[in-house]
């Protein structure tokens, strides 16, 4: 496995992976991915196996204390000097789920955010993923105000 940051040329593969991993009402649009790649490609962590993208973690950086729904669509809210690494999505191709790709990307993203002097990492997740994020030290801050995709989300935070 190779871990790297994204390139604009990854748009097609990342869009396809997103659509495979999230229901339509929650998946980022191709346009949103294109904007993210243009503004913060260094905040995409990609796992490749045999030259194919098999997993991805991405999100902007912000001083906001919580992940806000508008961040998913407006890459202009990224602030490279922000205190918090936001995490929008953790996705692994369904064929290779359970093989440690997402965990490896999470560890790399956390290490990079710490090295960049961030205060920590913020994300929202569904109830069934709470334990996954707790393994990395995230704390559940309760049900989120997020209305993203019409799902119930939990605010999670890892403080450094």
From TrEMBL:
Sample GO molecular function, one term: N-acetyltransferase activity
Keyword match Cytoplasm: no
Domain of life of the organism encoding this protein: Bacteria
Residue span, N-acetyltransferase domain: 1-159
Family matches, as CDD domains: NAT_SF
Residue intervals passing through the bilayer: none
Protein name as it appears in the record: Putative N-acetyltransferase YhbS
Organism whose genome encodes this protein: Allofournierella massiliensis
